[in-house]
Design brief:
The radius of gyration is 18 Å and the shape is globular. By secondary structure, it is α/β, with parallel strands linked by helices. The protein has helices spanning 25-37, 51-58, 74-82, 98-106, 119-139, 169-179, 188-196, 206-217, and strands at 17-21, 41-45, 62-66, 89-93, 111-114, 143-146, 149-152, 157-160, 163-165, 185-186, 228-231, 235-238. The chain has two domains: 5-136, Rossmann fold (3-Layer(aba) Sandwich); 141-238, Arc Repressor Mutant, subunit A, CATH 1.10.10. It has a five-stranded parallel sheet with strand order 2-1-3-4-5, with helices on both faces.
Length: 243
């Protein structure tokens, strides 16, 4: 009897586990083979409605998630996973329309790669997500306090006025980056290099999306933000006295 790949025995803990959710079998094979050659263990499901259970059962360190899937679309899968896990999620999309990419990030994705997938780029993005996850898990601990705002890097926790604020992985990393350099203006290029290991190409809106989500969650006025300011033509600035 054939055992579904997501039910196969777990690999040693030192091997990063990737759950690949992709309905294109040929592409899934190419990605899986390439990642295995570079030290990853890859489990594959071909339908969106199987992804949530596979993620719960397998507890991967990374999820690579296609946007267009049978059974359940990638956006809904992403939201479903975010309901029980903060595992880093990288979305694959064949759509060049920024709206689809932003929707992926709004639903809780941490990064995205456009199809056709360039394997070395995908590998670099996944390694960057692993590094960020390692830091967030406490290998580089620390706490920041600004007024009523507390950011605990060891616990990957944000509190405002004593209440926990739920933030995604990318949101946390951007908030930590800005709050650790209060008063300094950081450009999108600087933020992307620090958080995702890539430069700003003039079109990537992921930083703007994450900043917008942080403002909403942290009670900042989107029209006239005081806590995370927009410095037009330059970037973003964390205001330490607004908390």
């Amino acid at each position: 009897m054939h055992t579904p790949p997501w039910l196969s025995p777990a690999r040693p803990a030192a091997t990063p586990q990737v759950l690949l959710v992709e309905d294109d079998r040929r592409l899934a094979e190419l990605i899986g083979d390439y990642l295995r050659e570079h030290g990853f263990a890859v489990q594959h499901v071909a339908r969106g409605d199987l992804a949530g259970d596979a993620c719960r059962q397998h507890a991967p360190q990374l999820v690579v998630l296609d946007l267009m899937l049978p059974g359940l679309g990638g956006i809904d899968v992403c939201r479903q996973i975010r309901g029980f896990s903060q595992v880093p999620i990288l979305m694959l999309t064949a759509c060049e329309d920024d709206v689809d990419q932003v929707l992926g990030l709004e639903s809780g994705a941490d990064d995205y790669v456009l199809k056709p997938v360039e394997p070395r780029l995908l590998l670099a993005r996944l390694r960057a997500l692993l590094r960020r996850q390692s830091v967030a898990s406490g290998h580089d601990g620390g706490r920041l306090e600004h007024g009523q705002l507390l950011i605990d890097r060891h616990q990957r926790e944000v509190q405002l006025q004593g209440q926990r604020v739920e933030v995604g992985t990318t949101e946390f990393e951007i908030l930590w980056l800005l709050a650790s350099q209060p008063g300094q203006v950081l450009s999108r290029d600087q933020i992307l290099h620090a958080v995702r290991g890539i430069g700003f190409d003039g079109q990537d809106r992921s930083v703007d999306v994450s900043i917008g989500k942080l403002r909403r969650k942290l009670g900042d006025d989107a029209r006239e933000p005081r806590r995370i300011k927009t410095i037009w033509g330059r970037g973003y600035q964390f205001n330490p006295v607004a908390w």
